[in-house]
Amino acid sequence: MSTPPDLNRRDFLKIGGVAAVGATVGVRVDASAADQSAYGVAFAAPPIPLVRIGYVGVGGQGGGHVNNLLKIPGCRITAVCDVREERTAWAVKTITAAGQPAPAVYNRGPRDFERMCETEDLDLVYNATPWEFHVPIMLSAMKNGKHTATEVPAAMTVDDCWAMVEAAEKYRRHCVMMENCNYDRMEMMAYNMVRQGVFGEILHAEGGYLHDLREIKFENRGEGLWRRAWAEKLDGNLYPTHGLGPIANCLTINRGDRFDYLVSMSGPSRGLQAWAAEHEPADSPKRREKYVLGDVNTSLIKTANGKTVMVQHCTNLPRPYSRINIVQGTKGLFEGYPNRAYIEGRGRAHQWVNATDLQAEFEHPLWKELAEQAAGAGHGGMDYIEDYRLIKCLREGTALDMTVYDAAALSAPVGLSVESVAKRGRPIDFPDFTRGRWRDAAPLPIVRM
Ligand SMILES: NC(=O)c1ccc[n+]([C@@H]2O[C@H](COP(=O)([O-])OP(=O)(O)OC[C@H]3O[C@@H](n4cnc5c(N)ncnc54)[C@H](O)[C@@H]3O)[C@@H](O)[C@H]2O)c1
């Protein structure tokens, strides 16, 4: 299945029928493709005027996506699947209240998504389930001829990253991870500035997921039912994609550069134990759980072009929220939390400029167009914008903003960090999921409406 690295783009398209390039989903090469990356052309699928969606996992985050999709033109949720009947009932009520036909319901247990994928006529299977189900659902969708999208992280092991890539190539279907932080207002503004060259050549970036989830992890509902359990199993960065997604676009990962290797270390595991001792009754089984997840995990990634990335995970300690979001180049940098920038030769030397003071000049075009529609949607509106882009691209038959290779490269740090932590921080290589195609792929376009 490997693609020789010296194949150029033209050769690549010519051998479109060969297994290695099975990812060419109904290849279209035309003038309008000029605005698209090499992957863009390769991943364009035939347009779907009305996108029929099967939604799996309509809990906290999935419920938000259902509400978004009901407002986005050109799609219908025609089937819903959840292990909890009250959630499928909620989805039916919400969808019919929006004036759309009642969806088919699948709630006969944790593998009922398979029956949905096998029996329903769907264009897209989109899931927001606990992490262990993401890959099985996507594989079932693709095997049954459906495009597929998942919540983050797409996969928890490197093997599962490969399984996604291989299935997308084999079945020639979109398989994308919906990284909403790529669409946040400030991340998009920083991306816009990077692409305009404001910060010069980008050399270093930092991101993370620093979010006190202790209370949520101990609830007897929602994420409390599954997320804490991962802290008993793995020590590493369990949730790298929010921090890495936006900076990977700035660094042109998979489109001119790629993540090469990673080193990772975790500190002690204290936060969940302390929370359980303080908040759970003495006889609670939760007090007997043994956590291995270090409260602060720090990983460094080196890219093939020699750039550096720091990515952190910290969800078990008291602290304000941050995704860090630093992109640093030869002429300045953007830094999040609080959002600010420094551009050499502009403003006062050595002084930050508030990002809001730069918004009039550098606001990303998508936010200029969609801010009003997105208002009130999940996570400050970014979830609406990502769903909007997903449906729009499917309807128009253009490339999606993210490919299966992005899903794999951004999720792989879960497995790689676990391995590096276990080996005293030794460097662990990223697989080249693109099999050399990252070299010739043009950067992601600026992305417009
Ligand atoms: N992008 C973001 O900002 C963001 C925010 C929150 C959660 N998430 C992601 O969304 C996913 C879900 O998280 P959540 O907070 O909505 O959790 P949740 O527990 O609220 O929702 C999960 C839903 O999936 C259902 N479910 C569980 N197993 C299932 C199965 N086998 N088949 C069908 N349904 C099943 C549950 O009943 C529940 O309704 C996770 O991957 C999480 O990481 C992303």
Structure in words:
The protein has helices spanning 9-14, 38-43, 60-71, 85-97, 112-119, 134-143, 158-171, 185-195, 214-217, 227-233, 241-250, 271-279, 359-362, 365-374, 382-396, 404-422, and strands at 51-56, 75-81, 104-106, 124-127, 147-150, 175-177, 202-210, 259-266, 297-303, 308-314, 326-329, 332-335, 340-343, 353-354, 428-429. It starts with 8 loop residues before the first helix and ends in a 20-residue tail after the last strand. It contains 16 helices and 15 strands. The longest helix is centred in the C-terminal third of the chain and has 19 residues, at 404-422. By secondary structure, the protein is of the alpha/beta class. It has a 9-stranded mixed β-sheet with strand order 14-13-12-11-7-10-9-8-15. The protein has a 6-stranded parallel β-sheet with strand order 3-2-1-4-5-6, with helices on both faces. Nicotinamide-adenine-dinucleotide is lined by residues 56-62, 81-84, 87, 110, 113, 128-131, 133, 151-152, 180, 222-223, 225, 379.
**Mass-distribution shape:** globular
How confident is the prediction overall: mean pLDDT?
Answer: 91
Helix content: 25-40%
Bound molecules: nicotinamide-adenine-dinucleotide
- From the alpha carbons, calculate the radius of gyration and give it in angstroms: 21 Å
Count of distinct strands = 15
Q: Can you tag this structure with a few keywords?
A:
449 residues; alpha/beta; 9-stranded mixed beta sheet; 6-stranded parallel beta sheet; 16 helices; 15 strands; disordered N terminus; binds nicotinamide-adenine-dinucleotide
List the helices and strands and how they pair.
Blueprint: H1 9-14, H2 38-43, E1 51-56, H3 60-71, E2 75-81, H4 85-97, E3 104-106, H5 112-119, E4 124-127, H6 134-143, E5 147-150, H7 158-171, E6 175-177, H8 185-195, E7 202-210, H9 214-217, H10 227-233, H11 241-250, E8 259-266, H12 271-279, E9 297-303, E10 308-314, E11 326-329, E12 332-335, E13 340-343, E14 353-354, H13 359-362, H14 365-374, H15 382-396, H16 404-422, E15 428-429
Parallel strand pairs: 1-2, 1-4, 2-3, 4-5, 5-6, 7-10
Antiparallel strand pairs: 7-11, 8-9, 8-15, 9-10, 11-12, 12-13, 13-14
Helix pairs in contact: 3-15, 6-7, 7-16, 8-11, 14-15
Bound molecules: nicotinamide-adenine-dinucleotide.
